[in-house]
Amino acid sequence: MLSLLLVCLGMLAWAPSVRAQSASKTVVMLVDPSATPLALRLRQEIESLGLVVKWLPSERGRLPSLEQEAASAGAVASIRIAPMGGSDVDMTIFDRVTGKTVSWKLVATSSGDPAAGELIATRSVELLRASLLEMAGRSASAAAPPAKESAATPPELPPAHEAAENLSLLVGPSMLYSTELRLGVHVLSTLTYMPFARAGLSASVLAPVLPARLVRPEGTVELYTTFYRLGAVLEVTGKSAPVSLRLTAAAGLGRLQLRGQANAAYVSATESRFVACPSLGVTARLALASNLRFFVDATGTTAFPKTVVRLAGREATDFGRPALGAALGLELSALVGAP
Question: Does the pTM of the predicted model rise above 0.70?
Answer without folding.
Answer: no
